[in-house]
Amino acid sequence: MDGSVRLEELVMRFGDFTAIERTSLTIESGEFFSFLGPSGCGKTTLLNLISGFLTPSEGQVFIGGEPMAGVPVNRRPTAMIFQNLALFPLMSVFDNIEFGLEVRGVDRKTRRATAEHLLALVALEGVGERRVTELSGGQRQRVAIARALAVEPRVLLLDEPLSALDLKLRQHMRSELKAIQRKTGITFIYITHDQGEALTMSDRVAVMSAGRIQQVADPMTLYRRPATGFVAAFVGENNRIEAKVIERLGERVRLDAGALGELEGHVGKEAGLGGGALVSLYVRPEQLRPVSAGASGPTLAGRVEAVHFEGAALMVQVGLDGSGERLRVQLGSEVSRTFADGLAPGVSLTLGYDPAETVVLPRDDGSLVDAATGEVVAAEGGSHV
Amino acid sequence: MFRQLRARFGGPLAAAILALLGIWLIVMVTLPQLQMIEYSLRPNLLPAQLGGPDDRLTLANYATLFNNEIHRAIFFKTLWSSVLVTLLTLGVSYPLAWYLAKVATPRQAALCLLLLIIPFWINEILRTYSWFIILAFRGPLNEVLMMLGLIDRPIRFLSGDGGVMVGMVYAYILFMVFPVYNAIESLDDNQVRAARDLGAGTIRTHRRIVIPHAKPGIATGCIMTFMLAAGSYAVPALLGSPGSRWFTQIIYNWFFEGGNWNQGAAYAFLLLVLCIGFMSLVMRVFKVGLGDIAK
Amino acid sequence: MSSQRLMAFGLRFYVVVFFGYLFLPLAIMAAATFNDSRFPTVTPWDGTTLRWFGELWADGGMWQALTNSLIVAVGVLVVAVPIGIATALFLNTVSSRAKPFLYALILSPLLTPGVIIGISTLIFWRQWGVSGGIFLTVLGQATFIAAYVMLMVTARLQRFDRTMERAALDLGASQWQMFRRILLPFLKPAILSAAVIAFLQSFENYNTTLFVVGYDTTLTVYIASKVRTGLTPAVNALGLILILVTVLLAIAYEVKRRREAARQDVQA
């Protein structure tokens, strides 16, 4: 059963507005694939194009290698889990799960057997006769999954299905979803604005912004090696420092950060950044750590402005000497235990980092899009996240 | 239109929807009205004369109303009386609607609404007939009034327009109470409190806060009541006398006693124009649209 | 007593008087049924009797009129309910520049006096050789009752979550299956209410019916003619029975409606 999904030169316009810029992408059969992006980035449109609720303006969708042009929603080998679940409130749990089989003319006995089997799969035995309105949020979630699986889709489309749940349940359902996906081997296409969901569950993630896919990668690569400024800023937290390339040494670059002195960073092999290029250096808060003043490697000197206790970590805001720019520094329990007493506002601090764990990207890139909202904003240097 | 329907319901169902809508709007609503207007523009002819020189469009049927002093008087009386019925009904209904919407406790309001709905479900004829008994020459009202010594001899309530108007207010009051109640109910209590708090008295609060908010409901109630009053046949037929005829009775007579359908159609169209005119006037005065009325 | 308190007291007094005004006439009419007087009245009271019920029972014209009324009401249901549902679905689905115009046309039967609907129906069908009778009565009444059905169905349709539709299609349902299994069950309560209202509207109608009924007679037409000619307290007996039936129906309907509303509140 081939559950691969291929988008070929896909474009979607609504009147003058282009919701999806030209996009090509292949999702492997059996993959847990997420589209991650802020609201309005086009990810829901993409899902609707795959499920058949929308017809693309240009290009095509292939599922299992077959073109889907002209194939209506109710004939596609996909099933959707809706954001509000869209369970049928007037029907029992059994009737909900059996609906897809019923409309296909499957006989009552087979239907019931399938429903029982699926209820067991989602750990909900014994609730079949109940009305869906009598179930809790988590139970409804499972019924929705069982209902979608009942039609044996090759691809399961999930439209932010966890967003209505409370935090604890949401985290629990993540592992459940992942387990179900592994058990069934069905391709899962998951859309969300919650990076935690995307990173924990997915085999690969596509980060989207303003109708464009910014980067497709596995979660680790996405986090360590963001390909664009938008990804660097949107996925996880990042400090951005504007600089100019002095020289490039393989994957290393030496940077002139003006008043901050000389810094170092990592660039991808393919990035064509030569001497003099204007760049942004991204350093994650957890990569920054206090060092003694004369330590080797790149350092940043500043003054503690605020300290926030966040349970597992200590978040320190540091104003840099010279530029006054602010960095966020996350100290894990080991470091913070030794430093905690000395970390009062006003204390001077020298920060070091491992250049291999940073990313240097061309400066213009990413400043066009506001990472928090996904809106396109005017290109503007200097400010950092 | 078909495309949107087909996208949602599929071809056969979309076709069925459009067919039903089409039959209703064209065969049941529009064409009969147009036919009525066409009828009103033709003279009443014998079958042999059809297609002859006399069979042409004419405004003669409309001229009849202007030339017939009695009919004209009845037309205007119907207009004024219907306006009066509408205003009376509004006056009687408004305090009750206010009470239900803002003064009564939820339990009281629920009970009152149920009590209001019951007569609403009872036949207009029966409701009117009950007044026929009360207002009769030897009926209970005259008896009570005489017992109280207010009158020496019974009054003939059923000979003037008074009885008709009392009966109409009674028959159509719920068409006023419900829209006004619904409109007042949607008013935020805090607005009333704020007005009181700022020193506005009862009358000013109603004039400046409640009534402007309830405008769509008041407009709906007035339009419905006027339409029902002006178009009523049952109430004047039961409670009126030959001396106090209603315009609908004239129309009826053209059809079933005078045998002049063309003339009747002209009068019916004039009644329709009267109602549309009143509706447009109310909608303009209250600045409400058709969408507000259908609520 | 302050003026505010006086006002509040006045309002309560008014409400009591109002309900007296609403029910006293019906009570008097009901009471007159039991008065052993040749003429329907409560003054003077000539003794208590049940004979008017017997007289009503023996009245063949009444039974014929009742039968006609029931036939017409069922006919109106058959015509008006599908039209009302279709119109509600149409308005809920279509967006077009012609819609405001169509909407006005759809509402127009509600704002047209009943006599005019009767007259135009009568005139229109004459050219096809159809004269007044049960058939035209059904058509005339259905013309405006369909609009009531439309309003009631629309009110419920506006609360329908269209994701349900998408979900059904996504699970492989055809559009017809979606309509049959999802949308129609959702609309059912409103359709049933609309059917009850339509039935009653038809049963009670006088103004439209009068013009299209021809030589047939419905119960309301029968009552009206009785009141004007040959009035006896048997009319009151009929009125009393109709009132009791409608009151029972109204209460049952209200209780059911409220119970349903309460259940939906619990679920929401």
From TrEMBL, chain A:
GO molecular function: ATP binding; ATP hydrolysis activity; transmembrane transporter activity
Entry keyword annotation includes ATP-binding: yes
Matches recorded under Gene3D superfamilies: 2.40.50.100, P-loop containing nucleotide triphosphate hydrolases
Any Pfam family the entry gives: ABC_tran
Record's GO cellular component terms: ATP-binding cassette (ABC) transporter complex
Protein name stated in the entry: Spermidine/putrescine transport system ATP-binding protein
InterPro entries: AAA+_ATPase, ABC_SmlMolc_Importer, ABC_transporter-like_ATP-bd, ABC_transporter-like_CS, Mo/tungstate-bd_C_term_dom, P-loop_NTPase, Transp-assoc_OB_typ2
Keywords: ATP-binding, Nucleotide-binding, Transport
Top-level taxon in the UniProt lineage: Bacteria
PANTHER family, A to Z: SPERMIDINE/PUTRESCINE IMPORT ATP-BINDING PROTEIN POTA (PTHR42781), SPERMIDINE_PUTRESCINE IMPORT ATP-BINDING PROTEIN POTA (PTHR42781:SF4)
GO biological process, one term: quaternary ammonium group transport
Ranges for domain ABC transporter: 5-235
UniProtKB/TrEMBL annotation, chain B:
GO CC annotations, alphabetized: plasma membrane
GO BP annotations listed: transmembrane transport
Keywords from the named record: Cell membrane, Membrane, Transmembrane, Transmembrane helix, Transport
TM stretches of this protein: 12-32, 79-100, 163-184, 217-239, 264-286
Boundaries of every ABC transmembrane type-1 domain copy: 75-282
Source species of the chain: Halomonas campaniensis
Name of the protein this chain belongs to: Spermidine/putrescine transport system permease protein
Higher taxonomy: Bacteria, Pseudomonadati, Pseudomonadota, Gammaproteobacteria, Oceanospirillales
Subcellular locations according to the entry: Cell membrane
Family named by the database record: Belongs to the binding-protein-dependent transport system permease family. CysTW subfamily.
UniProt keyword Transcription regulation, yes or no: no
Domain of life, source organism: Bacteria
Pfam families documented for this protein: BPD_transp_1 (PF00528)
Membrane topology annotation: Multi-pass membrane protein
Principal place of residence: membrane
UniProtKB/TrEMBL annotation, chain C:
Record-level GO cellular component terms: plasma membrane
Domain ABC transmembrane type-1: 66-253
Major localisation: membrane
Gene Ontology BP term (one): transmembrane transport
Signal peptide: none
CDD domains per UniProt: TM_PBP2 (cd06261)
Topology with respect to the bilayer: Multi-pass membrane protein
Listed transmembrane segments: 12-34, 70-91, 103-125, 131-154, 182-203, 234-253
Keywords, in A-Z order: Cell membrane, Membrane, Transmembrane, Transmembrane helix, Transport
Pfam families linked: BPD_transp_1 (PF00528)
InterPro entries to which the protein is assigned, alphabetical: Bact_Polyamine_Transport, MetI-like, MetI-like_sf
Entry superkingdom: Bacteria
Annotated compartments: Cell membrane
Family: Belongs to the binding-protein-dependent transport system permease family. CysTW subfamily.
UniProt name for this protein: Spermidine/putrescine transport system permease protein
Natural source organism: Halomonas campaniensis
